[in-house]
Structure formats: C-alpha cells, structure tokens
Amino acid sequence: GPPGADGGAAAELLALDRAHVWHPYGPMPGRNEPYLVESAEGVRLRLAGGRELIDGMSSWWAAIHGYRHPALDAALADQAGRMSHVMFGGLTHEPAVRLATDLAGLAPAGLEHVFLCDSGSISVEVAIKMALQAQRALGRPQRQRLATWRGGYHGDTFHPMSVCDPVGGMHSLWTGVLPRQVFAGPPPAAWDESYATALTDMIERHAHEIAAVIVEPVVQGAGGMRFHHPEYLRVLREATAAHGVFLIFDEIATGFGRTGRFFGADHAGVSPDIMCLGKALTGGYLTLAATLCTSAVAEAISAGEGGGLAHGPTFMGNPLACAVARASLSLLRDGGWAQRVPMIEKGLRDGLEPLRGARGVADVRVLGAIGVVQLDHDVDVAKATAAAVAEGVWLRPFRDLIYTMPPFVTGDADVARIAAGIASAAAAG
Ligand code: PLP
Question: Where does substrate bind (predicted)?
C-alpha cells in the first residue's frame, strides 16, 4: 500500500472496495486491485500516497479539457446555486434549451431535434427507438432489425449490445437473448470498392426488414480501436437514403474533435438521420448524452401511434450536466482544440511509430488525438498498467490493445511521456 499518514485510510478504502464495489466488467471481488485516486487536476490524476499520473485515457474519451477546468468548475457551481434538477415532463429550463440549440447549431446539417438523456448506451437505445417508431409511423412496421458492420461497440444495454461486434467479448453471453441483427464485415482502413459494393448490397437485400443502419464514423472504439476510410460513410448514406432506411451515427466516442474534425461525420461530409453524443459532451464532468434527429424523423414519430417518442428518463435534461456541457462547447468554440489535436497527433506519431516492428507489436495507428498499439497477443492488463504507472502514465489496455486518447490540453512533453508509457506497457504486457 501507499506510504504516509493516509496509508491506513487508503488500505481501508481498498478493502471496502473489494468487499462491496463492482467495477466495469469485473468479478466480485476484483481480480486486480484498483488504484485509489484522490483528486485530479489538469491532465493529472493524484493517487493516494501522492503519486501523480498523466491521464492517457481522458477517463474513457470524456475529459477533453482535463480535470478541474476553471470554466467548467464555475459553470457547475453557478448552476448548483440555481437549481440542480427538476423533472423535464411539463417543465423546461434555460440550460437544456440553450444546450439543445447549441448542439443543433454544431451538428451536421439537418439534425435539429435533441433528446437529452443520461448515458451513451441510453442515447443509442433512444436512437434505435426513434428509427423503429418512425418506420412504424411511415407504414413500415416490419422494419424492426438493425444493420451494422462488425467490430463496433455501442454500449452495454440490450439493443446496443445487439449491434456490438458479435464475435467474442462479454456480449457473447447473451447469444439467443439479443435481437438478431444484420452484419457486414468490418470496414477496411483503405478504400476497397468491393467492400463498398458489399455494404450497398447488404442494405438493398435487407431493406424490407431493417429500420436503420448504425455505425461509429471513422473510428470504431471499444470494439477494437480500428480506423476506416471515411468514404464508406458516404456509401452508407446513399444506400440508406435510396431504400428508406435511417442512418444512425454513434459519435459518442468520436464527437467533439477527437478525430481531428469536430465530428467523425465531418471527414466524409455526410449527415445522418440520427446521431448519438455522450462522453466528452460535458467535458467528462457529468453523465449526459444526447440523441439528435432530423425534422423528417421527428415529424414521423409525432404523427405516429402514441403521438410521441416513447421515452422519458427521470434525469432528462439535468441542468447541472447541461450547464457544464454548454461551458465545454464554449471552450471548444474558442477553437483551441483545432490547433492542439494535430499537435497531439504529431506527438503520438513521433512517439509510437518507432514501436512498429518491435517484438510483439502487430500494428501502430494514430488518428487525431488517438494513438493505438496493437500487440500480437492479449495484454496482461495488470502488468501493462503497472508498467505505464511506473512511467507516471495512466493507461487502461484491453484485449490486444494499448492505446491513448489524452485530454486536448495535454502538452507536448506529456504526450511524449504517454508514448513512453505505452512503449513500457507494450514491453511488459
Ligand atoms: N457508443 C460508443 C461509440 C461508445 O464508445 C460508448 C462507450 O464506451 C457507448 C456507446 C456507451 O456509452 P456509455 O458507456 O456512456 O453508456
């Protein structure tokens, strides 16, 4: 355990954690002891005992401005002084109205209507519900399935799980329980005409039974950290539009500048019918997500059976989260990210490309503020993490991947340290 006067308190907390607390995808008690974090500021996590780690993960894509950003702290405190939460049924408030307006203004053309909910998985559920309800309302109730490509990840609730990569992983537990969807092969990194044709064929062949195609644009995140050619997004747009199938972009990981463009969709210049946002929406402060849709989708749903979208969570439009999200968008609107992300991209390339060809390394790839080292074997997560921590870097490898998506405010020297941490993790794990 950590030394010092608070070592006893830290040991007690870790013992209680083992006794009572679930962690993501963890057994109970956990297989590996978690690191106890006491505070976080800028790009650094401060552990019990005083050790500081550069956060290479942005707390899973979320903390793009780093921790304790003065503008975000102030927005949260200010809103807490007015109203923390009120129900959204029959009531509305400025934080939600202004945030929805901001999002509609920033989103790809045509996405004008905003459903505010509380996590990425739920925003995907809502997107799917929108697509199914709109198809029913348009007289196509038999269109209840979804299509996607392999290698994706869209969340852990049941409908999102059904469009995650079906091979391996936690979700194979649910074979036979999940709705059966339609899958194309994983999207290649390079342009491949025959893959594009296969996508179009899949949509044509299944158009009578699919409500929507759902994909992560440009980067498939938790399904394998793979990048694909943006032109496939245009292929999907054309084929779905031709057959009355809705196109859903899940920008929960890719949104808000991470890939070097404001949205992943911007790499292809296409607008989906429905789009999911989450994670960095609040700069990582609070749990908030959004599902945006076009007027055509909204009007179909509103004219259909029930007269509205069949969803309405308790914490819809939470004012604290909306206020922080607006402050985060305003930081992004200042444009600093557009200078920083290419610098981070260059720093990650410089630091990670030399690992290509190293023993155990199968691939190195960098896009925007995302750097990935893929090994030729599954990582020993505890060992790899410990090696990065010894370098003063927080990483969370999974499967055969050691990767980073650091806060946009990470300086060049810290980006170089993150790359060094990845190199150590790759050598150890
Ligand atoms: N969709 C994508 C692309 C994601 O990366 C994630 C989270 O990792 C989700 C959906 C689910 O979001 P949440 O974990 O907030 O439910």
Answer: 60, 153, 279, 312, 396
Q: Which of 380, 386, 398, 382 is nearest to 424 (CA)?
A: 386
Residue nearest to atom 15 of ligand 1 (CA): 120
Same domain, 126 and 272: yes
pLDDT digits (tens, 9 = 90+) for 266-288: 999 999 999 999 999 999 999 99
**Ligand 1 center from residue 155 Cα (angstroms):** 5
169, 42: one domain = no
Those residues of the chain that have pLDDT short of 50 are 1-3
Cα 115 to Cα 111, 208, 278, 365: the distances in Å are 11, 27, 12, 34
Query: Which domain covers residue 158, as residue numbers?
Result: 72-333
Residue 54 lies in a domain: yes
- CB count, 10 Å around CB of 167? 12
Same domain, yes or no, for 277 and 194? yes
pTM for the full predicted model: 0.97
Looking at 333, 359, 382, the residue that finishes a domain is 333
**ipTM exceeding the 0.95 mark:** yes
Q: Atom 5 (ligand 1): residue with closest C-alpha?
A: 253
pLDDT for 171 equals 73
User: Residue 20: inside a domain, yes or no?
Assistant: no
The answer to whether residue 25 is catalytic is: yes
Kindly state if the Cβ of 120 falls inside 6 Å of ligand 1. yes
Total structural domains within the chain: 2
157 in a structural domain: yes
Which atom of ligand 1 lies closest to the CA of 160? 10
Single-letter code of the amino acid located at 130:
M
- Which whole-number Å values give the CA distances from 367 to 175, 254, 290, 351, in the listed order? 33, 11, 25, 13
Candidate list 67, 153, 195, 403, residue with the active-site label = 153
pLDDT of residue 170: 64
Catalytic annotation, pick one of 118, 279, 285, 403 = 279
List pLDDT tens digits, range 8-19: 999 999 999 999
